[in-house]
Each structure stands twice: as structure tokens, then as C-alpha cells.
Write a structure and sequence with these properties.
The protein is an alpha/beta fold and 247 residues long. The protein has eleven helices and six strands. α2 (41-54) packs across α5 (90-106), α4 (72-84) packs across α5 and α6 runs parallel beside α11. The longest helix is centred in the middle third of the chain and has 17 residues, at 90-106. Bound molecules: magnesium ion (MG).
Length: 247
């Protein structure tokens, strides 16, 4: 990824949005959690696979990487629709999601994504508002953000699965994040690792930066509509000052 690549992507985005690329400065970064900040997707996919196996439902571990961003309820409804032809009630979904969350919690604590802390420090240093926008309601992960990334995510600037009626790929999570951060779509930079999250960000009107941090190939993130796709969070952190502008 070069400075030119970034300038071209920003130029195209600004043309679509009808704004001057020389004036474009994101005021808020809306940031996904799993697979973007913490290296949790391996454990999430293992927990989902364990649950689907126990329910006697055919599912591959890989497919759960592609459902990332959906709420737990939406993933459970998808599994039931496919295997049994009906959708369980919200209460049943929540019970099954609690089981999946307990399997996740039994697994060893995962690390943070390399480069994530540096990326956040750059945003803080530049005065860019940080809003967390996650499809998760996994409290063990939400609780650890303050330890892993001190001061990065004010508690009143967090959108979780509990705050939305429709999860990613619907734009609602990112639109609610913008409302919390007091910014418009064109003032927003989304940072994501999953195709459904990228779709959600695009549909909200934000500039979407995607990072590959797991087995999902970069092409899947481009096809989902990402304005830029980085090979790692370290690479995004290196180039973030160019995206933020004024450099
Ligand atoms: Mg993610």
C-alpha cells in the first residue's frame, strides 16, 4: 500500500460523496473489536463449531469466519433455518448464545492484534474520536478493552449487539456509532476485518478501511466494498497518518 494508493482511494470516495478530497479529514474512527483489536476469531469459530456439533447441525468452522459481525441471535437463526427449517425464539437464541459464550470463555485468553495499540494511539494523538462498533455482547472481551487499550474507548462511545436491532451487514451499528460520536458518514473512518462488517460500514456511507488478520482473503474484503485493504494492522498503523490527512 503506497501513499498514491491511499490518495486514489480517498479521491474516489470523495467524488462519490461529493466532497473535496483536499478538505477531507475523518473526525471519528468507528472500530470493530473481534479480529480487529483482539485476536479472538479462532476462539469464536471454535466455540460456534462446538455448539453446532452439539446441536447435531452440519457446519464448517471456516463458515463462521464469514458470519463475523452478525449478532449471535442472527447466527443461531441462520443455523436453525438451514438445519431444521425454523427459527428459534429470542429467548432460545439467547440461551444458546450464552452457551457459545461460555465455550469461548473456557478457552485460553487471546492476545491483541499486533499494531492495534499503535493504531489507537495515533488516533488519540490526532484528536480523532474513537467509537467501538461490535456485533458482540461477549462481556469478557468488552471488559478487557480498558486494560488492553487504556483510554482508547470511552464507555459512552460503544455500540454492541445489545444496542442494535439489526447487526452487520445492516448499516445500523455504524449509523448508531456515528450518532454517538456526533459525526456524519463523510466524517467517519471505519476499521474492520470481516466482509459483513465492511458491507455494514459501506452501507453507512463511511470510508472503510479493512485489515486482513485471519483466514479471510483480502479479495473478500475488496468485494465487500472496502475502500482500502491492508495486509496487517501494523501496515495500517504505518499508513494511518496519510489517511488522516494533513501530512
Ligand atoms: Mg471483526
Amino acid at each position: 500500500m503506497t501513499r498514491d494508493d491511499i490518495e486514489i482511494a480517498v479521491g474516489e470516495y470523495c467524488r462519490r460523496m461529493g466532497t473535496d478530497p483536499r478538505e477531507w479529514r475523518p473526525k471519528a474512527a468507528l472500530i470493530d473489536m473481534d479480529g480487529t483489536l483482539i485476536d479472538s476469531m479462532r476462539n469464536h469459530t471454535a466455540a460456534w463449531k462446538r455448539l453446532s456439533d452439539e446441536l447435531g447441525m452440519e457446519a464448517s468452522r471456516e463458515e463462521f469466519y464469514l458470519y463475523e459481525g452478525m449478532t449471535g441471535r442472527a447466527t443461531i437463526r441462520l443455523l436453525y433455518r438451514r438445519a431444521r427449517g425454523y427459527e428459534p425464539s429470542d429467548a432460545e437464541c439467547d440461551e444458546l448464545y450464552a452457551r457459545k459464550a461460555s465455550y469461548f470463555n473456557e478457552m485460553p485468553r487471546v492476545g491483541v492484534i499486533p499494531g492495534a495499540a499503535r493504531m489507537l494511539r495515533l488516533l488519540i494523538g490526532r484528536g480523532v474520536t474513537r467509537v467501538l462498533v461490535t456485533g458482540s455482547r461477549q462481556l469478557s472481551n468488552l471488559d478487557r478493552l480498558d486494560d488492553d487499550f487504556p483510554g482508547a474507548f470511552p464507555h459512552d462511545l460503544r455500540i454492541t449487539a445489545a444496542d442494535v436491532s439489526q447487526g452487520k451487514p445492516h448499516p445500523e451499528p455504524y449509523l448508531k456509532g456515528m450518532a454517538l460520536g456526533g459525526v456524519s458518514p463523510v466524517e467517519s473512518l471505519v476499521i474492520e476485518n470481516a466482509p459483513l462488517g465492511v458491507e455494514s460500514g459501506k452501507a453507512s456511507g463511511a470510508f472503510v478501511t479493512a485489515v486482513t488478520t485471519g483466514p479471510v482473503p483480502p479479495e473478500a474484503l475488496s468485494e465487500a466494498g472496502a475502500d482500502l485493504v491492508f495486509g496487517s494492522m501494523e501496515e495500517l498503523a504505518d499508513m494511518l497518518p496519510v489517511i488522516l490527512g494533513g501530512e
